[in-house]
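Researcher: Quick test of sequence recovery. Tokens follow.
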């Protein structure tokens, strides 16, 4: 049985969702923890469902971006929770100094307000798991799916009993059952491997998906197809802007308009737009996509303009 906890990030609903799975009477797992700033609110969410947070024995990390697992160290410290993560992410959970460095560069003095504090997890509580690994917790049989594209250290997790995949960010951002959009956060965006990751998920013919932003997706095939289409159409759009010689700051408001108009025409409401923007800020996607073109296809775009 999968339960959903709204982490109430910055007091807002429908931004960050934590899935909680019952594997046995005293054995629970959560998928991602949310940032450290929502730790207490997720703990309260576990209690509200009638469970005890000290029974959360396992934490499956989709990837180590702060909105997903910035708070994992608190679970490890307070409840002895073991954290499963891709081998490329594991060293940064054990020693988060580089994570702190890059987050400080992006968020500056907003870091603490947005994500809380960052701390290390003892090495013996971090378990590196790669593609194909099978995990058995009580009645839960889980298969690890390495799913890069959004981040090079991204895992998704197949839960056999529910025929569902916990997708982190690789299946996009889907607010209130609306259209899926790709979070193009820097620095790892790679469209070619993202496409392969989506194919890997499709092969399993899941009956549902779970995404961190936000919750359960009941039409996996349609949602994955729509996301894939958008991955490439937005990347092409970005390439055109670069070819026009536009700068990042010129592109950002135009990109925001593109996102809003596509969301509205695909059925999102005006109120949904700001939730999408909180979960997946336009400036991040612009930075991530520009980096993708310059890093992987420099011959197709003009050089950096200062
Ligand atoms: Zn992410």
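Model:
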């Amino acid at each position: 049985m999968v339960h959903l906890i709204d982490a109430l990030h910055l007091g807002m609903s429908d931004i960050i969702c934590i899935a909680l799975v019952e594997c046995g009477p005293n054995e629970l797992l959560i998928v991602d923890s949310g940032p450290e700033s929502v730790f207490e609110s997720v703990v309260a969410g576990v209690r509200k469902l009638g469970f005890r947070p000290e029974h959360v024995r396992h934490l499956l990390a989709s990837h180590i971006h702060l909105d997903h697992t910035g708070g994992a160290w608190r679970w490890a410290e307070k409840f002895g929770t073991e954290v499963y993560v891709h081998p490329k992410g594991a060293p940064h959970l054990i020693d988060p100094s580089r994570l702190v460095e890059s987050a400080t560069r992006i968020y500056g003095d907003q870091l603490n307000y947005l994500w809380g504090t960052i701390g290390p997890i003892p090495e013996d509580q971090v378990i590196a798991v790669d593609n194909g690994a099978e995990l058995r917790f009580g009645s839960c049989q889980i298969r690890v799916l390495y799913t890069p594209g959004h981040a090079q250290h991204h895992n998704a997790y197949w839960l056999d009993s529910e025929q569902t995949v916990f997708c982190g960010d690789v299946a996009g951002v889907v607010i209130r059952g609306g259209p899926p959009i790709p979070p193009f956060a820097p620095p790892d965006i790679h469209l070619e491997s993202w496409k392969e990751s989506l194919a890997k998920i499709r092969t399993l013919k899941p009956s549902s998906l779970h995404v961190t932003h936000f919750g359960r997706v009941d039409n996996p095939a349609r949602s994955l197809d729509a996301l894939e289409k958008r991955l490439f159409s937005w990347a092409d759009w970005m390439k055109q802007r670069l070819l026009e010689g536009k700068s990042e700051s010129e592109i950002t408001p135009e990109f925001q308009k593109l996102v809003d108009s596509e969301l509205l025409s695909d059925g999102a409401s005006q109120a949904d737009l700001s939730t999408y923007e909180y979960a997946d800020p336009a400036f991040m996607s612009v930075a991530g996509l520009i980096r993708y073109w310059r890093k992987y296809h420099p011959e197709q775009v003009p050089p950096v303009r200062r």
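Residues 63, 65, 68, 150-151, 169, 183, 185 surround zinc ion (CB under 6 Å).
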